[in-house]
Protein: CASP-like protein
Amino acid sequence: MLDFPGTPGTLTAFVLRILQCVFAAGSVASMATAVGFYNFTAFCYVIASMGLQVTWSFMLALLDAYALLRKKMLHNPILVSLFVVGDWVTATLSLAAASASGGVAVLFFSNLGHCSFGDECRKFQISVVLAFLSWITIAISALIMLWILAAG
Amino acid sequence: MLDFPGTPGTLTAFVLRILQCVFAAGSVASMATAVGFYNFTAFCYVIASMGLQVTWSFMLALLDAYALLRKKMLHNPILVSLFVVGDWVTATLSLAAASASGGVAVLFFSNLGHCSFGDECRKFQISVVLAFLSWITIAISALIMLWILAAG
Structure:
């Protein structure tokens, strides 16, 4: 299998996983501390999706760290197939969650002229931005995984 | 390059492109005929994104039809790279647009208890569903394109 920065077991892959975790955890924290988020399906969906993202990315970060320390390669085709499926599912869910909550946030801030939830408005915005950042990092990982699987 | 159903110039690819066009055009038609859609950024975004999708998919459908009639292969790596970029850009925009408008539609229908735009509500819903169907078909095309490019 191909070996370039970003493939499983490399430092780039580990950094990408950590960034995914940090952005997704930040998004969950920002949304979960906003009072009244549970009244909006899109905001609950962001918490669920980013929660799944944190779990998945943290597991893979541990695996990358283990491979780095033991200087092992993680280029088993079955393992990479599993990474591809997990990455694509979480990446799709993350983009959908970020966009759905982004749509609702834009509705509050632009279309209705103002956001009437006080201090919580800022938290909604931060959560959406962090969810998009998390999606960008997971999308990079997902593309690399699919590429190395297809290239064999 | 690999040759299996769904690769450029095959009947499956042509059918996928036509489906993308039909779903995206239906989504635009349903949203554009709903009075007051322009008050919502997410709904305007669906029209823009699905408009781009129709244009892109129609161009590729014509190319597939030409390849089918002339029995030519479209497996030039430069051409496939172009298809990959176009497919991924439109697929990402389509999912984001479908999710953003889906988030707003769910807000109207579930979170606010009812939709207060009368007959237009049904059109918003139909447009969102068609946008998601269009995304599913473009996602299949995009995955196939990336796969044949990576597999060489």
About this structure: The longest helix of chain A spans residues 77-111. The two ends of chain A are 5 Å apart (CA to CA). Chain A is about 80% helix and 0% strand.
